[in-house]
Design brief:
- By secondary structure, the protein is α+β, with helices and mostly antiparallel strands.
- The chain is built from nine helices and four strands, in the order βαββααβαααααα.
- Helix content is 51%, strand content 8%.
- A hairpin with a 5-residue loop joins β2 and β3.
- α2 crosses α3, α4 packs across α5 and α7 crosses α8.
- The longest helix has 14 residues.
Length: 176
């Protein structure tokens, strides 16, 4: 995977072993790319249909229905940084998504990339109940103009009762 514009590649320090690094280098060579993910008029990433099709049902369907080489796919609803992180993860750089999990999860959800979705679910650093995690993320959705803190908490309790799977993992998936 490489960006069409000439930008230096990231450091390979985070790879788990020599083979993963070699695979990443091979796949990063855009001479054999056959997919272009279009982010904007000026930003595109080259990639490979074998990797994307294997990882994603959505991409596989696009490739099955296209004779175009390279296949151009618009992913303009996502920022370049997020698409790049997702691609680097798929090419073996497991820490590429660090700090971007929420937005990368949305990309993985859109393109049905299960491995990436699982990698984006990160437990909270401190032990925190699923409710408090959910509440922290949902507060703005629940809060209506003029509501007191107590009223927001009561509304949250009502909504929390509707959540059937209250594990942190499930709550994260529901939110993102």
């Amino acid at each position: 995977m490489s960006e069409c514009s000439s930008e230096s590649e990231s450091s390979n320090d985070s790879y788990s072993d020599e083979e993963t690094t070699k695979l990443y280098e091979i796949m990063s060579d855009d001479r054999y790319s056959d997919v272009i993910l279009v982010i904007s008029d000026s930003v595109e990433f080259k990639s490979h249909r074998n990797l994307l099709g294997h990882s994603s049902k959505v991409f596989a369907k696009i490739f099955d229905n296209s004779n175009e080489i390279p296949v151009r796919i618009s992913v303009k609803e996502f920022e370049a940084e997020i698409v790049k992180a997702a691609l680097e993860f798929l090419y073996g750089k497991s820490d590429a998504i660090k700090g971007k999990e929420m937005n990368v999860f949305k990309f993985a959800e859109e393109y049905e990339i299960e491995e990436l979705k699982k990698a984006c679910i990160v437990p909270p650093e401190r032990a925190m109940s699923a409710f408090y995690f959910w509440m922290g993320e949902s507060r703005d959705l629940l809060k209506k103009p003029g509501m007191s803190v107590a009223e927001v908490a009561m509304a949250a309790g009502v909504e929390w009762k509707k959540v059937t799977d209250k594990s942190v993992r499930s709550v994260c998936i529901t939110l993102f």
